[in-house]
């Protein structure tokens, strides 16, 4: 199992998984906090959802909160499902690793998606995050609690996950102009996810 397999696995397994995804929105406290902190100098807050999947519950909730949402996903079946599920959002078939949009956002979200990248690709994402965040914009992502690789499961397929160490994420924040706002390792109120929040300075 390799990180290069992830997109193909979501092509194959993602739509069926999306139909059964937990929609209780345990993520809401962190989404709400990020929205409250994110700037909005030009009206509605602009959110970039990287690895957006099918759009529910997160993109739908962001839209319901009044945000403008752009979703990007490297899996064509998933972004097509996103476009149907949340038609008020902008849907982009794009790999987050090579994203080069000619706009910035108030809030960049990489929830349950960033951790499918290899360690080297995760390191290379921090300039991408910075390039797509307005000054003062908020970054929210999930990782593992410590450095390492793990294999999860989706449908009938194994699925790659990886994480850097907390110390390395903090070093990347410093290098790329981010201020850490919060770190919640293995948060029990959010299904054991490890959550990071940072602001572009």
TrEMBL record:
<dbReference type="InterPro" id="IPR029063">
    <property type="entry name" value="SAM-dependent_MTases_sf"/>
</dbReference>
<keyword id="KW-0489">Methyltransferase</keyword>
<feature type="domain" description="Methyltransferase">
    <location>
        <begin position="47"/>
        <end position="137"/>
    </location>
</feature>
<dbReference type="GO" id="GO:0008168">
    <property type="term" value="F:methyltransferase activity"/>
</dbReference>
<protein>
    <submittedName>
        <fullName>Class I SAM-dependent methyltransferase</fullName>
    </submittedName>
</protein>
<keyword id="KW-0808">Transferase</keyword>
<dbReference type="InterPro" id="IPR041698">
    <property type="entry name" value="Methyltransf_25"/>
</dbReference>
<dbReference type="GO" id="GO:0032259">
    <property type="term" value="P:methylation"/>
</dbReference>
<dbReference type="Pfam" id="PF13649">
    <property type="entry name" value="Methyltransf_25"/>
</dbReference>
């Amino acid at each position: 199992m390799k990180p290069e397999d992830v997109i193909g696995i979501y092509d194959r397994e993602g739509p069926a998984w999306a139909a059964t995804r937990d929609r209780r929105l345990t993520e809401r406290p962190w989404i709400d906090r990020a929205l409250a902190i994110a700037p909005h100098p030009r009206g509605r807050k602009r959110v970039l959802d990287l690895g957006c999947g099918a759009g529910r519950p997160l993109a739908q909730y962001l839209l319901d909160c009044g945000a403008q949402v752009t979703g990007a996903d490297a899996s064509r079946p998933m972004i097509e499902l996103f476009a149907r599920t949340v038609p008020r959002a902008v849907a982009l078939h794009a790999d987050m690793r090579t994203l080069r949009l000619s706009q910035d956002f108030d809030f960049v979200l990489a929830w349950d998606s960033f951790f499918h990248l290899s360690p080297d690709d995760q390191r290379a994402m921090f300039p991408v995050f910075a390039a797509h965040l307005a000054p003062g914009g908020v970054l929210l992502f999930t990782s593992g609690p410590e450095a390492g690789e793990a294999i999860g499961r989706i449908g009938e397929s194994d699925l790659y996950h990886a994480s850097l160490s907390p110390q390395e994420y903090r070093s990347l924040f410093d290098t790329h102009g981010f201020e850490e706002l919060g770190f919640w390792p293995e948060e029990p109120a959010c299904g054991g996810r490890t959550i990071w929040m940072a602001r572009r300075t």
